[in-house]
Design goal:
Four copies of one chain form a homotetramer.
Chain A (H helix, E strand, L loop, with lengths): L6 H11 L2 H8 L6 H12 E3 L14 E3 L2 E3 L3 E3 L12 H11 L4 E3 L7 H7 L5 E5 L5 H13 L5 E4 L9 H5 L26 H6 L5 E4 L4 H9 L4 E4 L13 H12 L4 E4 L6 H9 L4 E4 L1 H33 L12 E3 L2
Parallel strand pairs in A: 4-11, 5-6, 6-7, 7-8, 8-9, 9-10, 10-11
Antiparallel strand pairs in A: 1-12, 2-3
Chain lengths: 340, 340, 340, 340
């Protein structure tokens, strides 16, 4: 392996650079990792249906999420504790996302405070991911700091009333290395008593609320009823409940239930531009990339993240052209079909 | 491998500790072992559908089977000849089940008599598994001893009119080691002439009758008509007729045919808490674990069984929380969907 | 490997004993061998549905084919050139079939004449397989000899207007070893001009006509219209047209089209008693075993064939008992279901 | 491996003879190569349904494409830069196609000019494949030269508004070796602004227009409306958009939409005569072979291509006979069925 040509290559390079502790945290999933594997495998069962003789000399990969312009339908996912992967941590990611013209979602469990990350990439669009801790003061302080630093939306992770059991990480005795400080520790203190009623409290901060971790039509319907501006179809990268469907398989029921009343995003398993196109075809507005981005971070810090985001954007552009579409908006349900 | 993190780990450790004779008896299945493998693989095709923002701070994993409270929907299956796996045999299992707050089903082919097992865990709930031998006196004596020792139900194994052909065991020349005494030898003397009419005789002992080994709607219907209090959807862990469906695939038709008129349990292939959740979602009240429990027994005797039962209970609790359910009763048909 | 426990074991032993020339002839299939493999794999997708509490203390595996009693629903297929596998050739097979109480179908391409095979097992039931050669005199002479020696039916192989291309055999330079004489050489001279009209000529010999190689509903219907007494659902063990369905998958459409107006048999891929049960459940009256029988022949001559036939008969008996059936006639469409 | 018995053998021999540069160009596909693999695997899921007792002593494998007689339903695909594989390049292929009695489609990106290829096989039928370059003068000059040299149709490749990303070729640093001249370089200069309207311009040259790269019903319908004489169901051998269906899976919708108003051809993944039969059964008039032909070219130049074309023709003849058909026209939709 010399130069990386795709996200898989970045994964191999990241594996070489990280110790077992960081690598297992990044790689692993819950239980038997069936969902972890299926997230990736399921994309291939959705076949693309390209149209020909469509003029595609002018491709525009840009779109918006909740009104925020982004250069491609690829957003940086709220991956926790990024200094595990590179000493520059979330600052590198923030600068790379800004350079790539896209949005970064900062984790509550970051190794940098919201204000510090904002300072690293002033003026760039960013959202803040919220975990609700039993000690609400922790959550409140983080939200307040995010609000004060121009974060544009609050992304409530709803698939984590408690942390999933990631046995690979347990096997290597996963720990936060000495010297790293985590804004809020998800390994303890998550509040599993929160419910739909708590959305009002969150919405009270004046920012749009995004629910991350919705995988059923029933919850999609409820999300809209409770005022969510967007949902992210996510199974937490296969790290929470093993045995859940791949997100690309869950997406259609969520899109149908939402019926245009909120935006739909997707994460978990995206490794290729064609995966992004499949998600668009099934009704997602954009995807979030977590591990793919972190592979780049591990390999080369900010330039590494920039390279991965650029590579995926280029794959999306190439894919749009070959699919016969000039923009994400032109990708429709008729551009994909399911085959076993 | 150091500490066991899941049932698979206990399996590897058990393999190390057992000789070929005991191991093949425990591991093997009938014929080409397609059912043995499919029992496990089929669970993964039933995808969980978690619901979010449900308060799950108070999870209660307990339930009842035939009115008997158990700490989790996991019962100890009637595995034969347990002194093959550990010198403490069924006594260890009985004490562990009691400590774990659950029910043990004692095999007719145990290496301890019903009275002795009862004595090992006084006051604990237990059922007695019945094989009908051509020499009915053997069967009658065992049933009488069970009745006299507070066994709460009779579990008639109906998938074994004759023993299946387990070629792995044949290859290693399986035998009961010198010094072990089996209450009743299933390797000869089973009565393949019994029929539905014989249920009256069994029910005449005053205990509820459970039919173990029902895998079709037709037999489920008949079981109810003949007064069974419960059925166990089981293919004997793939040890009887190779080519039968995985039990999780057979469960829906049995539940539909029973239509609430009896309780439905399931065994064969359960290795994970999420497998238990799938069975609950498809209408089972609880599952039975045989091999999983025996892995623990082989590894460490009573504490080993306790550890496996505790681990599975913990996985069920975690799974309930992530599924958005606070108790087994809340897990419904809408929590699962089939995907190829 | 010590003693053989199943047909797979006999296959391994046969491989050890045969040279490449004989082995490739026996093992191989046409083209990419997809049908060869699928014949075996497809059985496992048809799941058995056992019924319980059926008295099965008296199992009778016997049945009839075209009125001829056989001890089990397993007939010896018309495998060519059996002296390739053992010096006793077809005589050994004939004696073993007689000893096993079943019927042997002798190939037109045998290494012994019909009269000689009849003499080897006087009084035993036998059918004669017919290839039609361009030189009809060859065919006529064989049929006349069969009629004169009490063969009870003529089995016309209809899937071989020309020999399939078996590349494994080509690779080893397959040849009939010096010293072996073949009654009629299928490697040249087959007549691909025969049609349905020729059945009248064949039927004119006064024996029932069986068509071997029917795999579609359309041909099954025509077979009945032209007076066939039975059809064999066969793809010639995957040796003719690669890409054809497994026979167990083709069986249902043939049975439906025949609708009881002729008997239906099946071959290709049978390795287990449960495969026989699946064929019975889907409407076959019996199966033919070719390679399985030849494995036994290669291993030990007549006793080897006897052992394989006995083993399969025992597996059928065990399977019937576990399925809850006392005879082949009790196995019905409700004893099997298809699962991907 | 000694003599090649099938296309797979030619592939292995070609691999031995080519350097990495040429081999990766020939072998590789786009992205994760899922379409590359699926093209081949999908054929096996379409099962052939042979009919028996049909007189097939006189097989005629010949057919026509757009009125041009060909000896078998196998046409030479427009593979680029054939001097990469053998010094005689397209001239060898042209002579071999002529000898085999079939049609060659010459690539715009050939290593010989249209006139030179015509001169190599005077009088033989040939079509010319068109890429539209931004510099239309290049395209026009090639078309004019083709028209002046008796090319009988213009085959517009419509799946390549830009070249797909073939990472294997990138990894080996693919380049056109010094000394080779390419008529028109597809690695730059393709015009992605062309649309359906441009077909009139192409049709204005007086030759029938064939659209290569149609894989949806929608585009098939449009092709007919815009006057295409034929379409080729193709995904460019998996080299353009990874994630598209196998062509054999896309064929039925194209045939249905065309509804007899144009001819339908197919390429991508054909390795066997039975693959050709499947395509015919699903409504294709003929197939194109690119890689298979190039394996022969690499192994032995003109005789190698002749051998591969002869081998495939023989496989088609054998397959027709075993399918119960005497000509390509007799192969119908009822000769194939889909099975997972």
């Amino acid at each position: 392996l010399s130069d990386p040509f795709n996200v898989h290559d970045y994964e191999l390079l990241a594996r070489e650079r990280l110790d077992d502790n960081a690598w297992e945290y990044l790689r692993g999933g819950a239980g038997d990792e069936t969902t972890l594997r299926d997230n990736i495998a399921a994309f291939a069962r959705w076949k693309l249906r390209p149209r020909v003789l469509v003029a595609t000399d002018r491709i525009d990969t840009s779109t918006t999420v909740l009104g925020t312009p982004i250069a491609a339908p690829i957003v940086v996912a709220p991956l926790a504790t990024q200094k595990l992967f590179h000493p520059d941590g979330e600052a590198a990611t923030a600068r790379a996302a800004a350079a790539a013209g896209t949005l970064m979602v900062l984790s509550s469990s970051a190794t940098m405070r919201p204000a510090a990350v904002a300072e690293a990439a002033p003026g760039a669009p960013r959202w803040f991911q919220v975990y609700v801790f039993r000690d609400r003061a922790i959550t409140q302080a983080l939200i307040d700091e995010a609000c004060a630093n121009d974060y544009g939306a609050l992304v409530l992770t709803v698939d984590t009333p408690i942390l999933g059991r990631r046995e690979g990480a347990l096997r290597v005795g996963f720990h936060i290395p000495a010297g790293l400080e985590v804004a809020a520790d998800i390994f303890e203190g998550l509040d599993s008593s929160i419910g739909w009623g708590d959305l009002e409290w969150l919405a009270g901060h004046g920012l749009p609320v995004v629910l991350k971790g919705v995988v059923t039509a029933e919850d999609a319907q409820r999300a809209v009823e409770h005022g969510a501006a967007a949902v992210v179809v996510s199974n937490h990268g296969g790290r929470q409940l093993d045995g859940v469907s791949a997100t690309i398989d869950a997406l259609p029921q969520v899109v149908e239930a939402i019926d245009g009343r909120a935006e739909v995003l997707l994460d978990s398993g995206v490794r290729r531009g064609v995966d992004v196109l499949r998600a668009l075809a099934l009704g997602a507005r954009a995807v979030l990339v977590g591990r793919a981005m972190a592979f780049g971070l591990a390999v080369a810090g900010e330039p590494g993240v920039r390279a991965v985001l650029g590579l995926l954007r280029d794959e999306v552009e190439l894919g749009l052209r070959l699919l016969g579409c000039s923009s994400p908006a032109e990708v429709s349900r008729e551009h994909v079909e399911w085959r076993p």
